[in-house]
Amino acid sequence: MAPKRGAIEARCTAKVRSESLLPLKNGWFVYKAIGLAYHANKGARMAQPANGAGVLTTPKSAAQLVYDQLKKKIIDFEIYPGTRITESEIAEDFQVSRTPVRAALQRLETEGQITIMPKQGCFVRSVDIETISQYYDVRIMLEASAVELACDHMNDDDLDALQEDWNAERLDEDLDMEEIKAREEAFHIGIAIGSGNPVLANYLRDINNNIRILRRLGFPDRQAVIETCEEHFSICQLIREKNKSQARKAMTKHIRKSQELARSVTLSQLQQAIKRHKA
User: Fold this and answer.
1) What is the pLDDT of residues 94-139, one digit of tens each?
2) What is the pLDDT of residue 210?
3) I need a labelling partner for 179 at 20 to 30 A (CA). Which of 91, 115, 133, 279 fits?
4) Which of 124, 157, 189 is the last residue of a domain?
């Protein structure tokens, strides 16, 4: 069953910090095969138990579902950075006992989403702009290596599909910006998978989970989409030509543009992006 709107969300309606950013984890997008097939997971709900009852059947399944939904609430700013949350509030909101809630919170703490302070409660972690920029530094290193490896390992069929997907001449007149953002992330994961190194691809997914909020700001207009199409198409062509040095330079330059955006945004801008996303 879906969690009801509860005390935590009610306390989060006006909490804003202008100088901090929320680290993001957990994906909105599901990748299949090379990453060209995707969907926006905008409206996930807690799964119904197999027996059709309105309660969760095992502590393990309850802990997983609380974890998934609580994490989504953090990502979607339904629970703001710095907010204090308690086991009792979460248990009430999700209509479960404290045992699965405790397991979910411990997992979120391990991932760095929250900080658990004895006798005080749990707090959603805030991250400053420099930390976001550091994630981009790591992303650049990963993707620069990925594109070089793709020159050796990526097969022509997958490369053809990626390149065709970013042909600016095939853009629809009316752009769905949420779809474009999903495709943009899928493009980069597709190259990472095409590198032949699944460990690299998994690390890149983790990085993306921490910076995805910035990508909501990445396409202000049609011209920005056209420029991204041209850059993606060019990167694919360099991979096809097995030009490792130029492919690495092109990918680095491409990601640096996003990093510069990350250095300039504020939390209030991110909140406005989220409001537009939900509209």
Assistant:
1) 999 999 999 999 999 988 889 998 888 899 987 667 888 899 999 9
2) 76
3) 133
4) 124
The amino acid present at 37, given as its one-letter code, is A
Comparing CA positions, the residue from 124, 30, 130 lying closest to residue 78 is 124
- Locate all alpha helices (DSSP H) within 28-174, ordered by sequence: 59-75, 87-94, 98-111, 129-153, 156-165
CB atoms within 10 A of CB 153: 15
One domain for residues 137 and 54 = no
Distance of CA 125 to the CA centre of its chain: 16
Summarised one tens digit per residue, pLDDT across range 256-277 is 988 887 777 766 666 665 565 5
State which amino acid sits at residue 1.
M
Name the phi and psi angles at 37, rounded to 5: -90, 130
Give the pLDDT confidence score for residue 150 in this predicted structure. Answer: 98
In a domain, 1, yes or no: no
Neighbours of 52 (CB within 10 A): 6
In a domain, 2, yes or no: no
What domain range is 236 assigned to? Answer: 129-278
Compute the residue count for the chain.
Answer: 279
- CA separation for the pair 26, 59 (Å, rounded): 22
How far apart (Å, rounded) are the C-alpha atoms in residues 129 and 31?
A: 28
211: helix, strand or coil:
helix
Percent of the chain with pLDDT over 70: 68
Cα–Cα distance measured from residue 248 to residue 126, given in angstroms and rounded to the nearest whole number: 32
The verdict on 156 and 32 lying in the same domain is: no
